[in-house]
Write a structure and sequence with these properties.
Elements lengths: L6 E7 L1 E5 L2 E17 L4 E6 L6 E2 L4 E5 L2 H36 L5 H33 L2 E3 L4 E6 L6 E2 L6 E18 L11 E5 L7 E8 L9 E9 L9 E8 L3 E8 L4 E3 L2 E8 L2 E6 L1 E5 L3 E6 L6 E4 L2 H4 L6 E4 L7
Parallel strand pairs: 1-22
Antiparallel strand pairs: 1-21, 2-15, 3-10, 3-14, 4-6, 4-9, 5-8, 6-7, 8-10, 10-13, 11-12, 11-14, 12-13, 15-20, 16-17, 17-18, 19-20
Helix pairs in contact: 1-2
Amino acid sequence: MPAPAVLEVRTVAVERGTIAQRITAPGSLDALRESHIGAEVRGRLWKVYVDDGDRVGEGDPLFQIDPEPYVLAFRQAKAGRDLARAERRQMQSDFARAQALLRKDVISRQEVDRLGTRVDVAKAHERQAEEAVDLAKLNLSRTLAQAPYSGTIAKRLADEGTTALVQPQTVVVVLQETQELEGRATIPEAHLQAVHVGDRAVIRVEGLAEPIETLITSVGDTVDAATRTYEVKMRVPNPDYRLKAGVFAEVEILARPRDDVLLVPREAIRSEDGETQVLTVQDGRAVAVAVRLGVMSPKAAEVSAGLEAGQRVIVGQEAKIIAPGMRVREREDGEGAS
């Protein structure tokens, strides 16, 4: 009976080295902040100072609610405060005279106590009136809406003459902070350990001749159950407003190199029944070894578990087609991973 065929295979040694990864993902450039600014007091929209596309600075007027009812309310509150103040002074004067008469036994202690209580009530009324003045002043100031930060008017949603409500709030303008944008990209779960805050990123936007270089500022802690991705963010300066919020971008993340890690060539990696494997040679036969991978580059992969430095793994087309247990003979003319 003829001896079983022996397949010649190429092997390379598992080595320690450095690996760097480039991750490309779809993304977008969004406004750093977006505020839907509406009426804080009810009234007729008297004047809208901005329109779509206008740029405003912090504190610039956006729109005004008719202030006349609130001017009148403020004056009325001040008059009420003046009245309460006068009544308190009168009560204090009456109480002081009553105390003098009590020392001469002209009136009773009960009458003096009654006047003292009226003084306390008058003081409470005065405090209440002062708070009414503060509230009326605040409401008057709220008739003028001002930009909370520098930005661009993304939308104007109401015009003069509209009756603006507080609940539900009538949104008049949408303000976006666009002098600096926030880049966002969705990264596959497989790269969960590869991306870190501070990693370099290159953003490419259609229509721009040069890519934009920036750094990762935030890495999401949650993986989306539907897409199996997580979000990373980065800041994108936009001083000349050439970039528009919402534009599509391609993001390439230059993950920081990992030093002194175990590496195998990517061509050695295979998948069987959902398990990631490589093939080694033991006693003249191919043996499957389960491995756990880390960072991957176009040519190599980091092995975080399953192999040791110096072990040899089968590479090339044979690594994909050989079944574990087949008789093989090594042809040691390969090189390590890189």
